[in-house]
Inverse folding.
């Protein structure tokens, strides 16, 4: 099963829409509730990262009986130092984004804690690709 | 305890999402950092915050929270109230600041 969602950079009014759709699909498929909860946390954080940092992005969701694979591909500034970005509390978010309660440097750590596998690659000036895997069996 | 019981006992205002007043309350989480709530709040909890924008409702919905309490007479933005109505998750209001309303809710839920 395959789904694709577009995410607009900077548009916080739509942030969470794709994650909400993913949650609905997983519920319809009767995926274990604990797995849905973890997937939703990771998916929302990754979606907000695109909104907060990138110009645009696409979310590709692939669900098989064995795995949920979600790939977040964005066009944006990229991440110069991924190890630093993974640290709790480190953020490059703007003050406007922080005032909204985002940008506390908790997004990527939240993602790592909730997924079974996470792979992130980034090219400065081009964008970032984040792949998340949840095992269903 | 239902959200409506909390509203009545703590004298809260129902600002939007009244259809969700029958939701069962399992606890409370207090934070103004959205990722903190995303990572640590759990289904059925009431979220106390000063954030009023729409992303609050996105999180409340994704986390299956029972209600949101806005402190210090803050009001939800229009699209926040609209999403609260659509999702049937109440946004409640109080004149009290965070510390005081959290204390009262803690006392009520741990009675």
């Amino acid at each position: 099963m395959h789904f694709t969602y577009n995410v607009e950079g900077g548009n916080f009014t739509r942030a969470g829409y794709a994650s909400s759709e993913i949650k609905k699909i997983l519920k319809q498929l009767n995926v274990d509730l604990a797995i849905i909860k973890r997937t939703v946390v990771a998916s929302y954080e990754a979606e907000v990262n695109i909104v907060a940092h990138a110009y645009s992005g696409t979310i590709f969701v692939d669900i098989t009986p064995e795995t949920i694979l979600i790939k977040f591909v964005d066009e944006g500034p990229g991440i110069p130092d991924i190890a630093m970005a993974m640290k709790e509390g480190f953020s490059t978010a703007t003050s406007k984004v922080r005032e909204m309660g985002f940008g506390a440097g908790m997004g990527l750590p939240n993602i790592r804690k909730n997924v079974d596998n996470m792979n992130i690659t980034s090219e400065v000036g081009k964008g970032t690709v984040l792949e998340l895997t949840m095992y269903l069996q | 305890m239902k959200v409506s019981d909390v509203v009545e006992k703590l004298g809260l205002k129902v600002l939007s999402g009244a259809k969700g007043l029958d939701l069962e309350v399992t606890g409370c989480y207090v934070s103004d950092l959205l990722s903190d709530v995303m990572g640590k709040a759990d289904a059925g909890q009431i979220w106390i915050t000063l954030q009023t924008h729409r992303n609050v409702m996105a999180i409340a919905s994704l986390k299956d929270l029972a209600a949101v309490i806005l402190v210090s007479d803050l009001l939800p933005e229009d699209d926040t109230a609209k999403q609260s109505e659509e999702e049937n998750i109440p946004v409640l209001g109080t004149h009290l600041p965070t510390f005081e309303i959290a204390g009262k809710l803690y006392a009520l839920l741990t009675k």
